[in-house]
Write a structure and sequence with these properties.
Layout: H1 2-13, H2 17-30, H3 38-48, E1 54-56, H4 62-65, E2 69-71, E3 89-93, E4 99-103, H5 118-143, H6 149-155, H7 160-166, E5 169-171, H8 181-193, E6 204-208, H9 213-216, E7 224-228, H10 232-243, H11 246-255
Parallel strand pairs: 1-4, 5-6, 6-7
Antiparallel strand pairs: 2-3, 3-4
Helix pairs in contact: 1-2, 7-8
Length: 260
């Protein structure tokens, strides 16, 4: 549907397809009004304050719904259309004094040329993500399966895809529908990578409500564990209580579970 919209717009306005794409995105971004409530934003920021170091948002619009996030500067890489939105991220200072990085794999409305839509855009993007996977494998082969990611990150800019392969993951409320095939591809790549040494595989958890539980069962074959909840609102509330407990705090630190 997106590709057809771009083609029709290009024909009507007699412009190149890539120009039509940018004009459509610009039009919709400039008139966009966030739909999420203040209560939902409060819950999101609440998870930032639990001490997670990295948060991956599958929405374009989170920036317009949150206050206190700042664009992070990259150390060794200049921003370009080839590196965006792999490396572009934002920082949020949580109540504990730590830094939480916020990533937008599909792009964000803070910079329109980061937004990925349609087969053409994702076709080029997934090849760039595969390069990140190959980069990870190279580092892993040189430094070992359990190399110090924190130390490596001190001298190298890390992409969200690089972190995705290595860090424990917790999916909250996104449903992982068929349209999220990019996430599914990475989950499969990750499971394949750890298939010969599963003892090094970080855990993956997916919060699944009563409607999504059956369709998400397929991810168990790729090393994911499902966390059942009646609905996502109640699931978020229960996880919030869990993460504020001393036992959970100790467990997270012992297992290096610092990504969401």
């Amino acid at each position: 549907a997106w590709e057809l919209l771009v083609i029709e717009y290009a024909k009507e306005h007699e412009c190149q397809a890539h120009e039509a794409e940018q004009q459509i995105i610009k039009k919709h971004v400039s008139s966009y009004v966030p739909a999420s409530s203040d209560d939902a934003c409060g819950k999101i920021k609440g998870f930032f304050d639990f001490g997670f170091q990295d948060v991956i948002s599958l929405n374009f619009d989170l920036l317009k719904r949150l206050q206190g996030v700042k664009l992070a500067a990259l150390n060794n890489k200049t921003e370009s259309k080839y590196s965006l939105p792999l490396y572009r991220h934002f920082k949020y200072s949580n109540i504990g004094g730590g830094q939480c990085k916020i990533w937008f794999p599909h792009g964000d409305i803070g910079r329109k040329d980061t937004i990925k839509l349609g087969l053409s855009s994702y076709g080029k993007y997934i090849e760039r993500i595969n390069q990140e996977f190959l980069k990870y494998k190279q580092v892993e082969n040189q430094r070992g399966y359990d190399f110090d990611l924190s130390a490596y990150g001190q001298t190298h800019d890390l992409s969200w895809a690089f972190l995705f392969i290595r860090q424990p993951l917790l999916f909250l409320g996104c449903g992982l529908s068929d349209s999220e095939w990019l996430m599914k591809w990475l989950i499969i790549q990750r499971e394949k990578n750890y298939s010969c040494y599963p003892e090094y595989a970080p855990p993956v958890f997916i919060l699944a409500d009563s409607q999504d539980y059956c369709k998400l069962k397929k991810y168990e074959a790729f090393g994911c564990s499902l966390l059942y909840c009646e609905n996502y609102e109640k699931g978020w509330d229960k996880l919030s209580l869990l993460f504020t407990s001393a036992e959970c705090d100790e467990h997270l630190h012992d297992n290096g579970c610092n990504s969401i």
